[in-house]
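Here is the promised in-class demo. Please do not try to memorize the tokens; focus on the logic of going from shape to residues.
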């Protein structure tokens, strides 16, 4: 009795579909994602002390990055890269970094410092209330 085998074409097609799905999941945005991020009032991100001076922190679940360019000066931006919609990975050496395609953004204004991102990160309102960061999108 012989085992059934998949043709080379079937294997390649399945691999291509799997890779396309993985790429779409990592770098795409959908209307559903946009609806989740729509402004409904301030979002509490937790202690302001979690954001280092001269650095920042990515809040992946909320798709927000908060930076502190100078002591007590907080800035908030969308964490979705303006190139392909990937979430930025972190803040290193005064830059918000997206490792998907190498874009870098300034921590004080979200401006593109290295492409391929075509536009700065959208800015959000941020305030400190009772020691916690409050961000309002939109």
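The designed amino acids, position by position:
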């Amino acid at each position: 009795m012989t085992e059934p085998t998949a043709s080379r074409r079937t294997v390649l097609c399945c691999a291509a579909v799997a890779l396309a799905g993985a790429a779409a999941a990592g770098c795409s945005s959908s209307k559903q994602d946009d609806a989740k991020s729509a402004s409904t009032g301030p979002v509490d991100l937790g202690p302001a002390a979690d954001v280092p001076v001269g650095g920042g922190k990515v809040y992946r679940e909320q798709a927000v990055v908060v930076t502190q360019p100078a002591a007590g000066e907080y800035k908030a931006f969308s964490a979705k890269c303006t190139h392909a919609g990937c979430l930025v990975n972190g803040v290193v050496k005064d830059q918000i970094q997206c490792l998907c395609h190498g874009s870098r953004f300034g921590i004080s204004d979200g401006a593109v410092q290295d492409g391929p991102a075509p536009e700065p990160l959208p800015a959000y309102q941020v305030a400190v209330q009772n020691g916690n960061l409050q961000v309002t999108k939109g």
